[in-house]
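Minutes, project check-in
Item: structure for the 461-residue chain
Input as provided by the requester:
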Amino acid sequence: VLLREIHTTTIRTKLENYIKRNEITAQYFARIAGINPGTISAILNLNRPISMTQLDRLTVGMELPEGALYDLYINECFVDHTPHWRRLRPFLLRCAELNKFDCIKLTVQKMMENLSYISLIFDMAEVFYHKEKHEAAELLYESVVESEKYQHSERLAICHYRLFRLTIDRNPQANLRAVIHFELFQDKLPDDYRLDGLLQLANAYYLLRCWEKMAFFADELRTLVQVLYRDRKMTKRKIDVLNTEHPLVFYYGQGFLLKGAALEHQEQYGEVEPYIDGYADLSWFEELDELGQLAVEKFKLFAQVNRYNLQLLAGNFSLLSTYASFLETSPQEILPSMVIILKAANKHRVSVDHVLKQFVDILDGQVKAIYDHEASYISRYNEFYYQLALYQFSHERNRNGIESTLQSLRISVQQGNTSNTLFCISLFKQFKEFATAAQYMEYEALIKRVGKDEESYALRL
């Protein structure tokens, strides 16, 4: 009997039960719910479909939580009947507002039985995306990807691009899946989407430490900008017609900067300088607006920093004091620069204690506030502590080295960064005899949070 009642429960039966239980009339309920009495009568007699506004007012009238009737609404309006977009659209919008993601998923599954809805679902996904209803947008984009029959369509490519942007930065494993899926579709995007897509692919491969891939997409980005810039000069079209997140000069400079960074990480230092020259002075770029001018000034700053970095990595520490003075006026560059300074110091076995003393406190304060919650910040902060641990061990400050190793391990575990986690575990094991009992206990607690496969591999090191 109970099972039959569950299956036969409808909005109408819930309304009837509420009226009977509270011993009120349908007319009185209509007044407290703010619905026309004739409409309530039609709903009770199954003579009128329920609109979204009426559904929410019925919910309030029956003193139910927001969205409490949505599951029933799906069964009555979308499962047993052909769904109409006039009702579907406001329903999906309300579900997104209330985070009723299961309702969105069920509704879209029903809609996808009719492939003519694909374009409407895609448009709705775009609405959610721009309203920053990202989880709802992701569900809709995934539905379009699963149902789109034209594998070379621009719409499909845009869906993969949006999913890439929505899922990137969750953790390294998610990042890898995201770039693999999107990479196959990036060349089918419209030019403005593709500019941002190539930039994000190169950045994603930076976080994944895939330097060859990073260099490839930096080249692709630079080539696309050059083509667009040339075409707009030839056709007398304004550059700013592109609907991009940044001015065109930004993508041009990033193409050079990212390629140089990829070469630097591959220790091909002799090949980096021409790419620094490529973004050191972009004042020649035509049609620079205020944002474009700001980008030009930033790239000039980046060029100065990266020339310092190249000199240090080559072993020229005579400029370190000049570099430190420069960083005092550019605090946003302290974190990435300290990573390079420590890396160079470890490579050439040079003491940089005076620079560490000058900036280490700022890294936990001002610079952290600038980079907070950004994936690039987290990656660099992680690398800073790993390089700091190596530096401290090389100077026989083993207790401090253990603490820096643990800090890098904390970040790696938190971010699910398997390769960095294993590096930290290996480093800790080399110097574990210097760990205090408290440090060793924290180390064991951290590796217990690592997945079983990673832990099994780490214990064999």
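Outcome recorded: DSSP finds 26 helices and no strands in the chain.
No further action items on this chain.
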